[in-house]
Amino acid sequence: MPTRSRHSYLLCFALLLACFHARAQDVKVGARIDAAQIMVGDQARLFIEAQHNPATSQLTWATIPDTFNSLEVVEKGKIDTIKNGDVVTYKQRLLITGFDSGMFVIPRLIFPVKPSSGAAYTMHTDSVKLLVQTVPVDTTKGYKDIKGIKTVKASWLDYIWYIVGAVIAIVLTAAIVIYFLRNKKNAPPVIVPSAPPEPLHVKALRQLDELEKRKLWEHNQPKEYHTELVDILRSYIEARFHVDVMESTSDEILYKAAVHKEMSVHRLLLSNILQIADLAKFAKAQPTPQEHMAAIEYARQFVTATKEKPVAPPQTPPQS
User: Fold this and answer.
1) How far is CA 28 from CA 53, 58, 169, in A?
2) Based on the number of CB atoms within 10 Å of its own CB, is 295 exposed (0-12), middle (13-18) or buried (19 or more)?
3) What is the DSSP string of 112-136?
4) 65 with 74: CB under 8 angstroms?
C-alpha cells in the first residue's frame, strides 16, 4: 500500500476514534453490585448510574426487566436526579435475588442516546456476575426424624391475668361512659370555627408543587405530567375568571384568554404552556427536560400574575 494512502486511512481512523471518545465523554453509564455472592433467597443491591448533559444530548433510561435469566428483580427503586452544573446524574437501585444455585450474569443495560447533532447511538453498562450458593449439607451424618407435636394441658390459672385485665377494662369503660352521660347536659356546646377557604392562587400553586414533586416526566410519563398541569390551569381559570375551559381545546382556551380583559395580558404565558403540552401529548418529538421544567414555571407565573387582589375594607368616615 502506498505511504500516502496508509496515512489517509490512519487519519480517518484517528478522527473516528476522537469523535467516539468525545461522544462517550458526554454520556457515561455504569452498574455495580454490592455483593459478589449471596445465599439462596438472600438479596443483593444493583446500583445503576448514568450521566449526561441535557444541552448536548437526550438520554433514554434503560429498560429494566423483571428477571435477569434465573435472577429476579424484587424491587425497582425510583430514579433519583442530581444536577451538578451542566451535567445531570441519574441513579437507580434494584434489589436482586435468586432461588437457584450457580453463577449467573446480569447482562449489559442499554441506554439509547440522541445527540443534538449527529446520529443516535447507544451506551451500555458492563455485565455483572453474581454467585448464588445453597446451604451446605453434611452428608456424612444420618438423617433425624421430625419430632411430633406435644400436647400441653392448660388450666384457667394460665389465663388469670388476661381475665383480670379484661374485668378492669370493662369497669373503667363503664365508669367513663356513666361520667360523660351525667355531665353531657351541663356541658356548653362546642363551636368549632370553620377554616377560611383556601385562596384560588394558593390552591393552584400548591397543586403545581405537588405535581412537580412526583417527577412524572422523569419517569417516562410526560403525557400524564402535562395533562395534569393543564387540568390544574383549567380549574384555576374557571374558578378565577368564571370562563368555561374544562372541555376546550388549546386554541379555544387561547381565544377565550385573548378576549378576556385580565387574561389577555398574560396570553403569551398560556400559549407557551399549551404548546409544550400539545407537543408531549400529540407530537412524536417529545419536549426536552428544559421545556418540561419551563412549562410548570410558566404556569406558576400565570397564576401569580393573575391572582385575585385583596379587597380593602371600606373606611368609616370620622365623626364630627
Assistant:
1) 10, 13, 65
2) buried
3) EEEESSS--EEEEPPPEEEEEEPPP
4) no
Residue 168 lies in a domain: no
Final residue before a domain boundary, out of 83, 109, 133 = 133
Query: For cell 410519563, what's the residue?
Result: 221
Q: How many CB atoms lie within 10 A of CB 193?
A: 5
Could you list the residue range(s) of the whole structural domain that residue 116 is in?
23-133
Question: How far is the C-alpha of 248 from the C-alpha of 240, rounded, in Å?
Answer: 16
CB proximity list for 13: less than 8 A, separation 6 or greater: none
For residue 166, the SS3 value is helix
Domain total of the chain: 2
Record the cell numbers describing residue 210, joined without a space: 405537588
Amino acid sitting at position 110? I
Closest CA to 290 of 217, 232, 216: 217
Q: Are 84 and 118 in contact (CB under 8 A)?
A: no
At residue 49 the predicted structure's pLDDT band, cuts being 50, 70 and 90, is: very high
Query: pLDDT per residue over 276-291, tens digit each?
Result: 888 888 876 788 889 8
25: cell is: 465523554
Q: Please state, in angstroms and rounded to a whole number, the distance separating the CA atoms of residues 177 and 63.
A: 61
